[in-house]
Amino acid sequence: MATIKDIAQLAKVSNATVSRVLNYDQSLSVSDETRQRIFEAAESLSYTKNTKKNNNHRGRIAIVEWYTATEELEDLYYLSIRLGVEKKLQELGFEVTRFFQNDPFDTLYDAAGVIVIGKYSLGQITRLKKLNRNLVFVDMNTLDYEISCVMTDFKTPVKAVVDHFMASGLTKIGMLTGQESTSDNVKLDTDPRSTHFKHYLKKQNNFHPEWLLTGDFTPESGYQLITQLLHEQAENLPEALFIANDAMAVGALRALHEAAIKVPEQLSLISFNDTSICQYTFPTLSSVKVYTEQMGQSAAELLIKQLDAEQVIPQVITIGTSLTLRNSSK
Q1: How many domains in the chain?
Q2: Where is each HTH lacI-type domain found (predicted)?
Q3: Cys-Cys with 269: which of 193, 286, 304, 328 at CB 3.0–4.6 Å?
Q4: How many helices (H) and strands (E) does the chain have?
């Protein structure tokens, strides 16, 4: 595990700044550029170390991110996937061009191929296909659109989280989740984690709708949902919470700390994604490990195979997960 000092040295900032940024300290005034250096340093130090840059120029690959550069800093899941893609492409000798949500995509046509990260509407997918036919999506199932994609498993880890809570004697289980929309304001389907969570607990006659709260996957949303839960369910709080991403969990921890509710003694938490911030919260966050580096690398390898193939057969690659237990859960 990289230390705060390691990250500070790589990002060229103080230890205190690193700690506050990784905990999404709202009172800290720091530029997006500095935040990006810190988050990218933290993520890169958690990656495997056998990077070998290939200096043979094999062409240009574009990476399209559904977030703006600023929004990406609020959810390290997507930043981590992007870094995994870039690392693999550089190893393979490709030049990389980044496009964020608010960048014009008109030059995508002259890239050898495009790796698209995040979630998009039908209209956006149609436009991307017109600009470049060599596409691979990451974190969205695009097989129905005859486009290959790389996904993570959701059903198995949700069951693992619930089973862990129950094996620890915690049967009053709630969840914080989020609702997403594309950048052109098309509402997306319900978070599959909450769908599996609800289904699995209903099978055991143990689902409590009052403990399933929906926000928007940001630290501030996690903070607000915990505040709402403490207000509305003060006499009927759950014993454990599954939180759909790490950013929300950081905000939830802050709200619980302010309310003097001890984690995990009074409320156990397990989040999802296991980005680098989980190791630097207090207490450290238990989280479902999503292998974002592998997702990015698999997307890069899949695209390169498509470029070399005479016939492209769309496929889905699903990457497994594992449960990483730390101090926020019993």
Answers
A1: 3
A2: 2-50
A3: 328
A4: 11, 12
